[in-house]
Design a protein that fits this description.
Helices cover 79% and strands 0% of the residues. It is mostly helical and 119 residues long.
Length: 119
């Protein structure tokens, strides 16, 4: 039964890490898009009044992605608790770039604060 649990946990971890990577990539792409919008407006020699609503929407989307990332981190932490509850404490399931929970939480809060300030 332990082997079945370990196998299931490994398959779950693979999906979790892929999702975390995809959300991080989406944040990076959205930040790039949002950051480029004022440059595109300037390059097109348009007044600052053009595209403001689009920039606001993009910033809101970025903020939503960052909040979603926070929820995913919470999911990761809950899954780690579950892993321990089912007797797989010795199983290291972190990716290569995992941060200690306290540091990761502080970084997430900093990112959310930064995005909220920008919006």
């Amino acid at each position: 039964m332990l082997k079945q649990r370990r196998d299931a946990a490994e398959r779950l971890a693979t999906r979790l890490f892929a999702t975390e990577k995809a959300v991080d990539e989406a944040i990076c792409r959205m930040a790039d898009l949002t950051g480029y919008m004022p440059t595109a407006r300037t390059d097109a020699k348009l007044s600052a009044v053009f595209g403001q609503e689009a920039i606001s929407q993009a910033a809101a989307t970025l903020s939503a992605l960052v909040r979603a990332r926070g929820q995913l981190v919470a999911t990761h932490n809950r899954l780690a608790e579950t892993r321990d509850q089912i007797g797989l404490q010795a199983m290291a399931m972190g990716s290569d770039d995992m941060k200690p929970p306290v540091q990761a939480k502080a970084q997430n809060e900093d990112i959310v604060r930064l995005v909220d300030d920008a919006a």
